[in-house]
Design brief:
It contains four helices and five strands. It is an alpha+beta fold. The protein has one domain. Strands 3-2-1-4-5 form a five-stranded mixed beta sheet. The two termini are 20 Å apart. The N terminus and C terminus are likely disordered.
Length: 163
């Protein structure tokens, strides 16, 4: 499956240690627009200051997981009609996603600058697989199947490979 750039997530760690997250959206004509992801503290307040981080299983990675999953599952912001099923999926999945994926990428505030991407379809595929098999099994598979660039993760990272 080719990399689906119509909706992917880009996480960047900058020289000063700040971590930013963008949702890349297709605006037509082969052009994409990066939109900052809301931390979604209305769903779960893991990070007191709302800051994102990666590279360790902490509050910043957990808040980033909430933000990415809420966007991927299109959970509306406050004031809009909430989808209880998708909200429940996000709340059930964000700790596992944080520890299985976000805690293992880049270097966070101490690891220097980097850029990492994951497609929306890969995120949804990963959560569905975790709902069937559990996050521990998904994390082990994620660690084994490193036939992808560590800065770009598509669905192929979560498929079993025959040896």
């Amino acid at each position: 499956m080719p990399f689906d750039r119509t909706h992917s997530y880009v996480v960047e760690c900058h020289k000063n240690g700040t971590v930013t997250a963008l949702a890349m959206r297709d605006i037509g004509g082969g052009c994409f627009s990066g939109v900052s992801i809301d931390p979604r503290r209305d769903l779960a307040n893991e990070s007191d200051d709302g800051r994102f981080d990666v590279g360790y299983p902490g509050s910043g990675a957990a808040q980033l997981a909430v933000a990415i999953l809420a966007d991927a599952f299109e959970v509306p912001l406050d004031g809009e009609t909430l989808s209880p099923a998708d909200t429940a999926r996000v709340l059930a999945a964000y700790h596992g996603f944080s520890q299985a994926v976000l805690a293992k990428i880049g270097g966070g505030a101490t690891g220097g600058p980097f850029r990492w991407e994951m497609t929306r379809s890969a995120i949804i595929h990963l959560v569905e697989k975790a709902e069937r098999r559990g996050w521990l099994a998904v994390a082990e598979e994620y660690d084994r199947n490193r036939a992808y660039s560590p800065r770009h993760v598509g669905e192929q990272a979560f498929r079993r490979t025959k040896k």
